[in-house]
Design goal:
By secondary structure, this protein is α+β, with helices and mostly antiparallel strands. Strands 4, 5, 7, 8, 9 and 10 form a 6-stranded antiparallel sheet that branches. The chain has a single domain, classed as minor pseudopilin epsh fold, CATH 3.55.40.10. About 30% of the residues lie in helices and about 30% in strands. The longest helix is centred in the first third of the chain and has 49 residues.
Length: about 200
């Protein structure tokens, strides 16, 4: 009783504890990485909601709407207050009416920028994204204008997590009057279209 057969060996409590700790640390690391992905995903859907709100407001009021991607990490929806376009000058003078805004920092540690991984363009795999200090490439002054007749400014905005792993591309296309979002996975090196 209490004796083992010759040549068989079980695991000691120390070995089991070490394996358990490694498993817990791995789970925490995976959860943290997925947290960045979820934050970018959530931000993409919030901006898409802002885009559709702007389209509905432009069509129903007959006034242009503008989504301003400000360098300080705030995305704001403005009403042109009678004109067809929202401009930086009118925003600074208070002529365009603020409807609402989203702070990028509210979605964990996110910021405008590229991951520096040298990712390809989401829609053209042969085109590399230039590693530049200008992640906001939207119209004039970072404003996406939505016209009352449905037109929208062409452009792209790149947002990354603060660790520089995951990257989000928000893109509009005038020809389709549509809003697209893509997330770049650093581990597979591929873009995934969200919508």
């Amino acid at each position: 009783m209490g004796m083992r057969a010759q040549g068989t060996r079980g695991f000691t409590l120390t070995e089991l504890t070490i394996v358990l700790l490694i498993g817990v640390l791995f789970f925490i690391m995976i959860s943290a990485l997925k947290g960045n992905y979820r934050a970018l995903d959530s931000l993409a859907y919030s901006v898409r909601s802002m885009f559709y709100t702007a389209r509905l407001r432009a069509i129903s009021t007959g006034r242009g709407q503008g989504i301003f991607f400000c360098a300080d990490g705030v995305i704001s929806l403005y009403d042109s207050a009678g004109a067809y376009s929202v401009t930086r000058k009118n925003i600074d003078q208070g002529a365009n009416k603020l409807v609402y805004r989203i702070a990028i920092a509210a979605f964990a540690d996110l910021e405008y920028g590229f991951t520096g991984v040298g990712a390809n363009d989401p829609t053209d795999p042969d085109l590399n994204i230039p590693d530049t200090d200008k992640p906001i490439k939207m119209g004039h002054g970072g404003i996406m204008n939505i016209k009352p007749w449905g037109g929208v400014t062409n452009g792209s905005v790149y947002i990354r997590d603060s660790r520089g792993e995951y990257m989000l591309c928000l893109r509009t296309a005038f020809a389709y009057t549509r809003f697209f979002a893509y997330i770049h996975n650093p581990y597979s090196g591929r873009w995934r279209r969200l919508f």
